[in-house]
Amino acid sequence: MTVRVAVNGFGTIGKRVADAVAKQPDLELVGVTKTRPSFEGRRAMEKGYPLYLAGDGKAADFAAAGLPLAGTAAELFRTVDVVVDASPDKVGRENRKLYEAAGVRAIFQGGEKADIAEVSFNALGNYSAAHGRRSVRVVSCNTTGLARAAAVLRANWGVDHWEATLVRRGADPAESKKGPINGILPTFDLPSHHGPDVRTIFPDLSIATIAVVVPTTLMHVHVNHVRLKQAPHDAAEVIAAFRTTPRFHLFAPWERADGTPQVMEYARDRGIGFNDMMENVLWEGGVRLDGRDLYFFQAIHQESITVPENIDAIRAMFDLARDGPESIAKTDRALGLSRS
Ligand code: NAD
Question: What are phi and psi of 224, to 5 degrees?
């Protein structure tokens, strides 16, 4: 069985999900949408992705730009099995009406509130919860990173309580109108919304998060202190658990990856996707254990970490894999993700 997929919104997340869908043997990318012409629309054309008109876009603008349209978004939605909505925050809620009108299943992103879909999703965390669903929300980049780590810690030692400080990037690299350019902005929403969002995946997880926004575009960094239920033997045991779990990439001290600049340089060297780093990144030198108290840093590439999760969400909805591990392995093989 091949599932026919449309991607609605061809920005940071949408263009990555479209490429990821096109690489899967059991998925077919039927088309992508744009509201107005841009270099990203041009790339869609160059890649051979049929382009459809979305939102309040005007067909004449595309004709003037020389970008051929295959039709309107509404026409596209009627020809596919599922739409991945990758439109800006809160726009997905408006778009939901279009999906309902077309009778098509939908995946939403983390910029939407949890009640947009039947279930919130993370492949390592709750794969089977999306099984057979008509609507699924892939949680945000930070929540995906926390949920993946929670899946490892809960399965191995249990989590008593988790305190995380999220050092958030100010903007994505192409967002030239956002900031801060200088300064550190505390998020006065205390604790931050990320903790409750992780509980959409693990309802009983005791976690409190706080956040600051800093002038960088590369990645987020999470500073974690977790009191585990059972003490691991040593930090090496924790490192081994992360190393042997898909979607984690660990840097050994000898690799001299001091921080996010080197992590993203590695991603450019590796050159998969858009030079993306779709895994949670941990530094072995940044993992410490004191009895049941675990301290670790993890870096999250906001632009790409949710991309493989969108693929697994489709597989779960359409029963294309036996379980989460099988889907994750299939996705990661097609995307060229390595196991560190
Ligand atoms: P983006 O602004 O880069 O891309 C959104 C795209 O949707 C743009 O191309 C825009 O023109 C298009 N669009 C606007 N109105 C539309 C409409 N009515 N119908 C269809 N398309 C429309 O945004 P993004 O960063 O890709 O974010 C998309 C979603 O993914 C949001 O929910 C966001 O919270 C979530 N997300 C973003 C990141 C990130 O760091 N960028 C990480 C994880 C999740």
Answer: -115, 140
Place of tokens 């039947």: 118
Task: Count the alpha carbons within 13 Å of 240 in the hemisphere toward its beta carbon.
Answer: 7
On the 0-12 / 13-18 / 19+ scale of CB atoms within 10 A, 115 is exposed
The pTM of the whole model exceeds 0.85: yes
* Residues forming a β-bridge with 296: 224, 287
Q: Is 280 in the pocket of ligand 1 (CB under 6 A)?
A: no
User: 298 CA to middle of ligand 1, Å?
Assistant: 24
- Could you tell me the mean pLDDT of each successive run of 10 residues in the chain, 340 residues long? 96 98 98 97 97 96 97 98 98 97 98 98 98 98 98 98 98 96 97 98 98 98 98 98 98 98 98 96 98 98 98 98 97 86
Whether 141 is in the pocket of ligand 1, judged by its Cβ within 6 Å, is: yes
Which of 141, 205, 307, 337 does the annotation list as catalytic? 141
Measured in angstroms, how far is the CA atom of residue 204 from the centroid of ligand 1? 30
